[in-house]
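Let us work through a complete example step by step.
Step 1: write down the sequence.
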Amino acid sequence: MTRYGYTLMTEQSGPKQLVDYAVAAEKVGFDFEVSSDHYSPWLTSQGHAPYAWSVLGAVAHATERVDLMTYVTCPTLRYHPAVIAQKAATMQLLSDGRFILGLGAGENLNEHVIGEGWPPVAQRQDMLEEAIHIIRALHTGELVTMDGDYFRIDSARIWDLPDDGVPIGIAVSSAAGAERFGELGDHLITTDPTPEILAGWSGAEDSRTIGQIPICWGPDKDAAVEVAHDQFRWFAGGWAVNADLPTPHGFAGASQFVRPEDVADQIACGPDLDELAESIREYAGTGFTDVAIVQVGDANQQRFLDEVAAPLLEKLRG
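Step 2: predict the structure and record it as tokens.
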């Protein structure tokens, strides 16, 4: 049976609100919760970008049942992989074994801020692979010294470490990526629901395949479309574009000709729960074991959780 998750969208809500939403999402029956990890929102109108790891630590303390996950963290530029290894181990302990470390090659939007430039995609993939090897080595609890092509580790050890380490999900956008990283990851992450990517995954048979889909519930369909257009029109560019633009201003320029009706063609909007459920069910039907739902916009977020999430989940599971 497909698991349904709730997305803690750090680009559209503040840190305290996100913790409150996480608690409400657990109570209403979501199976897991994922958090974006951004230094900037996609668009200025979203208006937020709190530190995801502090939020997740608070969420781990405030919840009891739901799995938690970064969706996703880049362990190559803004964060050194040794730091990611320590943070992930701590999160696994705080959550009593409910944490999955979701990793990806990152976006320029978040990684350029440290002033080290933005490597070409092939190099980013190589850096991600080396970073995963470092994280795996540190999660053994052994003393690690390593001099790689991109990272150096000098006598590093994770002192507070869960007995079984931390499962790793890896974000990919192609069948080639799925094949390359299958041997390194425990779970597959992708926002592109194509059978080719799922078929290309070379990981274990019990790997979770984790996707994400936005919806925009609202009591008025036209108003919901406007919210989705204002907050999520960057989504129309696809990941090949989204990975390389450096600023919210750049995303505003790249999406200036995206119309509300274009967004409505990609994102189910409005009050019709059957329509929302069908868009999610179609995504899940491509073979994902887990689907994280994004409720676009902060304004109706609490109302969505209070009034809509439970009947929507019932429809999906029914």
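Step 3: interpret the result. The chain has 13 helices and eleven strands.
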